[in-house]
């Protein structure tokens, strides 16, 4: 039997980073065995729906190459189907109409259980502990408790991966599947992603939107690589995966039981790695939307090789290159030797031709100390891209102006 999975987001706002992880797991589970990955838009909560959010869901999935098979199912276009299902439940005695709404009747003194294929253990509940659930609201729209089983049945879904928040509702869904004579798909709940400050990662605690991460300059391939390892790991503990490699390697035995912590430093490491895999031409194109200074495309391409190793996010480009477009101030208490700067002015051609080291040594100076003075005078910082290459991009004339300006600011006679 072919595996069919689905990703079923609600268009109620920006996609949560945890939702991207769910989509990636469902995609990999299906594609690893040559199955189908489907998309469903759960838009029955009309009051919370955000205009344009459905298109953004499509755009985000496409940006991460998580393409879906078949036409997306849109719940608001299937109201009659849910209403008919609710009536069947009433007719079979498993639901009751209550003030215009239809509620599921929970059987007394039963044990309801299923095997969670992600957690890899059986989960059970006493039916007496399960409250009656609304299946169809008085406005004719279904709740998740009804729409999900009906849709999963009609779409032929064999495996459901969804967030652990839905685990307490699972016995309700099991009963609906049973009472509608539907075959129950395998269901799995990956562990919850935790905030570094404690508790579950949530919108209230900060930036958890996929779009916001992309806007800050995280690459899709880095973000995807990072999130798939939040709750899953291969047998060999490998860390770097393209989407194709993840699909090929995917194994449900790799799901981890402990709750992963959202480690931003680790995400930064992934992003820096993937940035350094890009060509200078590719990076020029990628950083352009983040460039607010006056660097031209040609200058950006010249500068990219100098800062590539220091670039963590695409949005860091402006900060790292600001000194190229404006003369920096000399930091307070900076260790800058006036003698070094005067010597640099006289020997500017030797510096630009990489012929200065022997001349520095002939003065009895430490090479590192000389270049530190040069960095601070030209770039305004001890930590800069390679200073000779930086001066070549700035040009001889601008480099001399900065050296002379630094001398003036230091009030050197």
UniProtKB/TrEMBL annotation:
Q: Does the keyword Aminoacyl-tRNA synthetase apply?
A: yes
Principal EC category: ligase
Q: Name one GO biological process term.
A: glutamyl-tRNA aminoacylation
Per the UniProt record, which EC number(s) apply here?
6.1.1.17
Where in this chain does the record put each Glutamyl/glutaminyl-tRNA synthetase class Ib catalytic domain? 3-98, 101-269
Checking InterPro entries in the record gives: aa-tRNA-synth_I_cd-bd, aa-tRNA-synth_I_codon-bd_sub2, aa_tRNA-synth_I_cd-bd_sf, Glu-tRNA-ligase_bac/mito, Glu/Gln-tRNA-synth, Glu/Gln-tRNA-synth_Ib_cat-dom, GluQ/Sye, GluRS_core
Q: Pinpoint the Aminoacyl-tRNA synthetase class I anticodon-binding domain residues.
A: 282-407
Ligand binding (ATP): 203
Short motif 'HIGH' region, span? 9-19
Q: Which GO terms describe its molecular function?
A: ATP binding; glutamate-tRNA ligase activity; tRNA binding; zinc ion binding
Short name of one Pfam family: Anticodon_2
What residue intervals hold the motif 'KMSKS' region?
Answer: 200-204
Q: Name one GO cellular component term.
A: cytoplasm
Where is the protein localized? Cytoplasm
Give the keywords, sorted. Answer: Aminoacyl-tRNA synthetase, ATP-binding, Cytoplasm, Ligase, Nucleotide-binding, Protein biosynthesis
Catalyzes what?
Answer: tRNA(Glu) + L-glutamate + ATP = L-glutamyl-tRNA(Glu) + AMP + diphosphate
Q: Which family does it belong to?
A: Belongs to the class-I aminoacyl-tRNA synthetase family. Glutamate--tRNA ligase type 1 subfamily.
Q: How does it assemble?
A: Monomer.
Q: Report the protein's function.
A: Catalyzes the attachment of glutamate to tRNA(Glu) in a two-step reaction: glutamate is first activated by ATP to form Glu-AMP and then transferred to the acceptor end of tRNA(Glu).
What name goes with this protein?
Glutamate--tRNA ligase
């Amino acid at each position: 039997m072919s595996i069919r999975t689905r990703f079923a987001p609600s268009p109620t706002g920006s996609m949560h980073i945890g939702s991207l992880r769910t989509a990636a797991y469902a995609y990999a589970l299906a594609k690893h065995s040559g199955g189908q990955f489907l998309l469903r838009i759960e838009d029955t909560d009309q009051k919370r729906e955000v205009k344009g959010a459905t298109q953004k869901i499509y755009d985000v999935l496409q940006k991460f190459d998580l393409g879906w098979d078949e036409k997306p199912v849109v719940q608001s276009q299937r109201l009659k189907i849910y209403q008919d299902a609710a009536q069947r439940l009433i007719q079979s005695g498993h639901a009751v109409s209550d003030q215009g709404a239809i509620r599921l009747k929970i059987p007394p003194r039963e044990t309801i259980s299923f095997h969670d294929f992600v957690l890899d253990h059986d989960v059970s509940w006493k039916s007496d502990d399960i409250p009656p659930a609304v299946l169809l609201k008085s406005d004719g729209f279904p709740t998740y408790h009804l729409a999900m089983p009906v849709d999963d049945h009609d779409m032929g879904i064999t495996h459901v991966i969804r967030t652990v928040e839905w685990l307490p509702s699972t016995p309700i869904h099991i009963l609906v599947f049973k009472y509608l004579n539907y075959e129950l798909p395998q269901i799995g709940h990956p562990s919850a992603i935790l905030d570094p400050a404690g508790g579950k990662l949530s919108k209230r605690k900060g930036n958890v939107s996929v779009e916001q991460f992309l806007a800050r300059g995280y690459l899709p391939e880095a973000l995807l690589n990072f999130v798939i390892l939040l709750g899953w790991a291969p047998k060999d503990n490998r860390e770097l995966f393209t989407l194709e490699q993840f699909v090929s390697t995917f194994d449900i035995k790799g799901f981890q039981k402990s709750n992963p912590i959202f480690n931003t430093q680790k995400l930064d490491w992934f992003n820096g790695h993937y940035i350094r895999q890009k060509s200078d031409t590719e990076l020029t194109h990628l950083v352009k939307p983040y460039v607010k200074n006056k660097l031209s495309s040609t200058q950006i391409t010249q500068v990219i090789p100098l800062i590539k190793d220091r670039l963590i996010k695409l949005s860091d480009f402006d900060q790292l290159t600001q000194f190229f477009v404006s003369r920096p101030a000399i930091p307070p208490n900076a260790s800058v030797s006036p003698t070094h700067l005067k010597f640099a002015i006289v020997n500017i051609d030797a510096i630009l031709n990489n012929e200065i080291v022997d001349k520095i040594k002939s003065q009895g100076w430490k090479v590192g100390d000389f270049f530190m003075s040069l960095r601070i005078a030209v770039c305004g910082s001890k930590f800069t891209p390679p200073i000779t290459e930086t001066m070549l991009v700035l040009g001889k004339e601008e480099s001399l102006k900065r050296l002379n300006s630094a001398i003036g600011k230091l009030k050197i006679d």
